Amino acid sequence: MRQRRTPPAAEPLERGCVPWLLACALATGAPHAGHLPVWLSAGAAAALLFRAWLWRRNRPLPARWLLVLVVVVAIAGIYAQYRTLLGRDAGVALLVLFMALKPLETRGRRDAIVVVMLGFFLLLTHYFYSQSIATGLWLLAAATLQTATLLRLFGGARPLPDIARRAALLLLQATPFMLVLFLLFPRVSGPLWGLPQDAHAGRSGLPETIAPGTISDLVLDGSIAFRVSFDGALPENSALYWRGPVMDEFDGRNWRPARLGGFEPARIEAKGTAVAYEITLEPHDQRWLLALDAPLALPERAFVSARMQAVAAEPVRQRSRFAFRSALDYRLNTAESRRMLDVARRLPAAGNPRARALAAGWRTRHGQPQAIVAEALQLFRGGNFVYTLQPPLLGEHPVDEFVFDVRQGFCEHYASAFVFLMRAAGVPARVVAGYQGGEVNPVDGYLVVRQSDAHAWAEVWIEGEGWRRVDPTAASAPARIERGIASALPEADALPTMTRLDLRWLRFRWEAINNAWNQWVLGYNPDRQREFLSRLGLEGIDWRGMTALLAALCALLLAGIGLSALRRRPRREPLQRAWLALCARLARLGVRREDWEGPLDYAARVAAARPELAETVLAAAAAYAEARYGGRPGDAVDRLREARRKLPRKWSIA
Amino acid sequence: MSDRRRALSDTIAAAGRIILGKERQIRLALACLLARGHLLIEDLPGVGKTTLAHALARLLGLDFSRIQFTSDLLPADIVGVSIYDREQAAFRFLPGPVFAQVVLADEINRATPKTQSALLEAMEERQVTAEGETRRLPEPFFVIATQNPSHQVGTFALPESQLDRFLMRIALGYPDRAAERELLAGGNIRERLDALPPTLAPADLLPLQQAVAAVHVAPALVDYVQALVDGTRQDPAFVHGLSPRAALALLAAARAWAFIDGRDMVLPEDVQAVLPAVAAHRLGRAQGGGHANADDIAAIVRRTPLP
């Protein structure tokens, strides 16, 4: 009858390891507190505090049934909260729960290892929520802590700097593997699973309708809308009109794009040379892209609409790069369709009587649309209009009140009033929303366009000329277009901190770092990967090739490390090799030799644990001892090998 | 030699019948004797220190003397004095109790340092100089000193340099329940000691000691001893590591242990077996004072892989 095996002795956990485990739980779990239900965060904190108290007072751990009860209640709570136990949020909540409770049952070293491994897993889940540099740094620090904890578990108590140094060294040794995996692991377009919130729930950016106040609200937002890198020289600021949605329907207060169907794409006649540039667009969850007037070449899966908007096939939910070529000097749709022109002349039936009267006067006086446009611009230029972020509220007839009474407004007031006047005078016109200008970051040379650069301007259609851009804001406040928003607004108007001039140097550096992170770490997509590999001379490599290369490089690295380790360790003589091989086989059978344990002691222990092996092992150990310590080699090597062959080949988990 | 080996195991068995349940200590004491070292027993009175010394002396057929150390004991009380012999009209040296093959120095830390050093010098030199004349001590010469735990009042703790002269320091400890019951049920110890037949002749001892010194030590074992000694020197828990003399002592003791075990080669197991007895009293702890305890020694062993 086969004797029952005793399980390998569970090594008890050293008391000194507990603070390490608690630190791991805290470092990996705490950053989740922001998006977990309050009761769970508080409960997890309480569990960790309780464990720390038990440790401090040297109290026994709570009974297992109590823990089971807590786990069941907490899982029920999570289910009640999320109505599921699957998915990102509920899954993370469960992991945090386990992380907080596992330290309460760490009796042996095996439990401690579970805590550390759980911590490594929990670390990854942070990328579901944030992929910023700060998150990356935090996770790096936490991974170092986890590694240090493993060292503490296996290496015993050592001075803290010693453990930290070794942990950092281990991570450093892992860096080549990380780089190989990062660069060569075949990329797929789009994420494999749920996206981090900050990767696509971006700022909404430009509004879909324009009313007085919509753009001036946006101007207070200092966040970045997109970044541009030009292939050649940067065009002048006054040419940087980044075209967004075009609004051609007015209901008396709001401008919105009219619903059109069956239109041909805009026909652009380019004059002069074109500029090429690449835009890194922050996600705005809309289909429109932002391009300089007028876009000639568009990226794949994007097209030019009838109103010359660049439109993507899908809403932009991730930070994405688009390459464009634009002609700054152009003619647009010199032969415009009747329907489009009708839309561009339409006004509500009533409202703003004074403006209508003024426009009707221009129409009868001039007749020529160019003269009417000039008349209107003259009005804005000479009429003591004030460009401000905080205009008074407008009432029932907003255009009338703006043009004749308050004369204070922001770009949407000007554009809206201008287009209204044009339409009232019979000139086809429309409002264009977008961004104007931008700011060059001297650190990395990117042109940065912020939400605060949002702008609205007008387009009029003139026979023989096509659509022509007219910016009434430029007529009233030329500094806005020539030098940017910060110089055009009065001092009292509060701008976002990041746009203020005195903090620029800091902002430039920080944003350049962020941009590099976005471009090269987060934005390392299939295109970038292909580009990078073709630069290495690996053009047209597919995922199979990449995987093979990946495996080959990793194998090479491992072989290098292995070789250097082998060189450092003196080659063992055959006797020692045979003995260690025998010990390794016995270890797999459940009795591991301690590295300080003498041969006879070990053999006696094996004999006690596995009596059926006693004869073989005792004889082999005696032969080894004679050879190694008695100076009588004899045929010990053969006897050791023979003994090893005689042992059963069974594998065991111990 | 095999007869002598058998006699050795008989000795251990016979001593084990007198001092019950202390086979390990008996073996260590015997190993100490075979390695030509001296033995220090640190323990409470009444646990059988004297009995052990006495039994060993009887079993080996050696003569035995006992010195009770007190605070007014003088060096001459140990070494001996010269007195004037009227009949021969000359000074005659009366040898002190140190002139015996097995000397039990009881409660050595009760005497003044001066008196202590007289004995310790004799132990080291194996000779005594009194009144200008050097006299050799008998061969073999084996001192078993006992000392009370040093926290007891009226003691002069032995300095480190003196402790180093003892090859081993052991403790006897209380007997376990079964052994103590047997002890209580048994007869008068003194009578049983007197009735103890010798298992070895004094003439056997020297060849045995020579055989112990010839036990094989492989280079791999020297590596191991060096690694252990190095370990004590690197360990911040101790004031100093083991000295080269201590390393020699460790090898000598391990040889004797291996010999008693019936082997002619030293194994790491032998070194590990004698390490607590050889090393503990030579390692001062950096914190809390006192000497290394069993846990400290076990930690050193566990930290030092076999080369």
Give a quick rundown of the structure:
Chain A is 49% helix and 13% strand. In chain A, a hairpin with a 5-residue loop joins strand 8 (302-304) and strand 9.
How would you portray this structure in words?
The complex is a heterodimer of chains A (654) and B (307). By secondary structure, chain A is of the alpha+beta class. Helix content of chain A is 49%, strand content 13%. Chain A has four domains: 15-157, no CATH class; 214-505, no CATH class; 526-568, no CATH class; 574-646, no CATH class. In chain A, helix 13 (398-406) links the parallel strand 11 and strand 12 (408-409). In chain A, helix 4 runs antiparallel to helix 5 and helix 6 (133-155) crosses helix 7. The radius of gyration of chain A is 36 Å and the shape is elongated. Chain A starts with 17 loop residues before the first helix and ends in an 8-residue tail after the last helix. The model of chain A is unreliable at 1-9 and 192-202 (pLDDT under 50). Chain B has 307 residues and is of the alpha/beta class. Helix content of chain B is 47%, strand content 14%. Chain B is built from 13 helices and nine strands. The longest helix of chain B is centred in the first third of the chain and has 17 residues, at 2-18. The model of chain B has no long low-confidence stretch (mean pLDDT 86). The chains are: A alpha+beta (654), B alpha/beta (307). The interface between A and B is medium-sized, with 14 and 18 residues.
